[in-house]
Specification:
Layout lengths: L1 E5 L4 H12 L4 E6 L3 E7 L7 H5 L4 E5 L19 E3 L2 E3 L6 E5 L6 H13 L4 E3 L17 H14 L3 E4 L6 H7 L2 E4 L7 H8 L5 E4 L6 H13 L5 E5 L17 H8 L4 E3 L1 H5 L2 H13 L4 E5 L17 H17 L5
Parallel strand pairs: 7-8, 7-14, 8-9, 9-10, 10-11, 11-12, 12-13, 13-14
Antiparallel strand pairs: 1-3, 1-4, 2-3, 5-6
Helix pairs in contact: 3-4, 3-11, 6-7, 10-11
The structure holds phosphoenolpyruvate and manganese (II) ion.
Length: 338
């Protein structure tokens, strides 16, 4: 971290500042210029926050050199993290992982039928929401624990681990008992109590990007989970909010190579929530695989026009199967096993 101090800073204030950093185990490179004095902080600065330092009236500017995250940082952990989800390995160099299923689990019959269809088309993991974060309190809120139970049965029947979203840590036991991959939704990406809670469990976590979160805020959310003891975090891009209204959100595909550089965590892309339109799912999914995503999570429904949530962005099973064939070709062309 580089701290620029005003020229006329009193010596006593400078000494106080320097010893406060030294007490934190940092070494200081001091450089006196004509206009400013510059402190170069050497060591682990993840515990420092620029804005706190900026509060000092003698500080002109603070510049971070090292990212504020440590455990998720590629710099300190050069090897790619591979996350095991009920036997499916997700991460760089692994087979492309495909998670598919309805937005929400609606009934035993429908989840069984959809699970069988997506499995037949080659999906590895069954997705479905039981606790749904709906914008309106009058919309279908999900089947709750019953949804998890019937989804687990559908997963078992078809040999698929399951991924579903947790909204409150009070339900954690249901997830520990039944769920293979615990999803933190976009709306809860900065629910720090929930992040801490999933940090304490022994299950992998799918951390979706908040719709208005920067890449750094998103990685810091992963850092929360990891700092609380859970290293098995998968990052999922699901589109961000921009001025554009033609799509539901705006897919930020540049995160794939960017995250690859900054972190060692697996990267999954959700073309359903990112676009909000089933017609756009296939091309965006193909682009994500071409750009090196480790996996996809896609909404599939056997009767999208009757779906209780997100029907407009759900593929019919036959469209999903056709997409899987195209993805296979992209995966092969880019050297990714499928
Ligand atoms: C979901 O995957 O069901 C979901 C609600 O997604 P997001 O949190 O990305 O909106
Ligand atoms: Mn959905």
């Amino acid at each position: 971290m580089i701290i620029t101090l005003k020229k006329n800073i009193p010596q006593s204030e400078m000494d106080r500042l320097i010893s406060s950093f030294e007490e934190k185990g940092l070494r200081i490179n001091l450089s006196h210029g004509d206009m400013y004095t510059v402190l170069g902080l050497v060591g682990d600065t993840t515990g420092l926050y620029e804005r706190d330092i900026q509060a000092n009236e003698w500080v002109e500017n603070v510049q971070r050199v090292q990212a504020p995250y440590k455990l998720a940082n590629r710099l300190f952990h050069p090897e790619d993290t591979i996350v095991d989800v009920g036997g499916i390995k997700i991460g760089r160099g692994q087979k492309l992982a495909v998670m598919a299923g309805p937005c929400a689990v609606e009934s035993e019959d429908s989840i069984n039928e959809i699970a069988a269809e997506v499995r037949k088309a080659g999906a590895d993991i069954l997705r479905g929401g039981a606790y749904k974060p709906r914008t309106s309190p009058y919309s279908f809120q999900g089947l709750g624990y019953k949804g998890i139970k019937i989804m687990k049965e559908a997963g078992n029947r078809n040999g698929m681990p399951i991924v579903t979203e947790i909204m409150a840590s009070q339900n954690m036991d249901e997830f520990i008992e039944n769920v293979d991959l615990v999803q933190i939704g976009a709306r809860n990406m900065q629910n720090f109590d929930l992040l801490r809670a999933v940090g304490h469990i022994n299950k992998p976590v799918l951390l979706k990007r908040g719709m208005s979160a920067t890449i750094e805020e998103w990685i810091m959310a992963a850092e929360y989970i990891m700092a609380n003891g859970n290293p098995n975090v998968i990052l999922c891009e699901r589109g961000i909010r921009t001025f554009e209204k033609a799509t539901r959100f705006t897919m930020d595909l540049a995160v794939i190579p960017l995250l690859r550089e900054k972190t060692h965590l697996p990267i999954v892309i959700d073309p359903s929530h990112a676009t909000g339109d089933w017609k756009l799912i296939e091309p965006v999914a193909m682009a994500a695989v071409a750009a090196g995503a480790d996996g996809l999570i896609v909404e599939v429904h056997n009767h999208p026009e009757e779906a209780l949530s997100d029907g407009a962005q759900s593929l019919k099973p036959e469209k999903f199967a056709a997409m899987m064939e195209k993805i296979r070709k992209v995966a092969e062309a880019t050297g990714r096993e499928f």
